[in-house]
Amino acid sequence: MNSISMQLSEGELSFESDGQWITSNLPQPDPKWKATDKQGHEHHYAEGPDRYPTLTAVSGEPYWCDDCCDDEHRDTWYECRQCGERITPGTYVDSSPRYISGPARYYWNGEPISVEKANEIIVEMQRIRDEAMRLKTRPAIGTQVRLMDTTVTVMPTDDSTPATHVTVMHHSTGATETVALTQLRRRTIM
Length: 190
Fold this sequence. Notes:
Elements: E1 2-7, E2 12-22, E3 28-29, E4 34-36, E5 42-44, E6 55-59, E7 63-65, E8 71-73, E9 76-80, E10 86-87, E11 91-92, E12 98-108, E13 111-113, H1 115-133, E14 144-147, E15 150-154, E16 165-170, E17 176-180, E18 184-186
Antiparallel strand pairs: 1-2, 2-12, 3-11, 4-5, 6-9, 7-8, 9-10, 12-13, 14-15, 14-18, 15-16, 16-17
């Protein structure tokens, strides 16, 4: 069982999930598969419910299997939608272990809560954290701060600029711009 707890000022939010490691030797569709049939029609794998957009799945007549399982079978295959040529899409076997998580359970101060309530608590926690990181006054020249997802350095700001704004230099380009303090965040919570 996986368990994570977050201690907040109002209480403790906990998350538990059961899961298991699985392996499989069954073939899986190869996302890199591409092929051209004898008529020059190109085929490929695609994400989504229609994995092979240029192919049609075809089912043969049912037959009885006397060899191994005494059961009815029906063979299936793919054909080109344009010319009807039988196509075998590429597959691969990935037998590396993968963790499959089970249903999640959330607790507030040890009491079970719904996923929706847990999400409300997480959103509020993120809002509080963002508010704590938000700058309220101009930082000192040379201070590194966050502007969206990049680090910038505070530069001297023109005296005519309102106190609610600050000039920063982008590390990647060296370009400077004046931005509102509300756009900036501390690099770490102090």
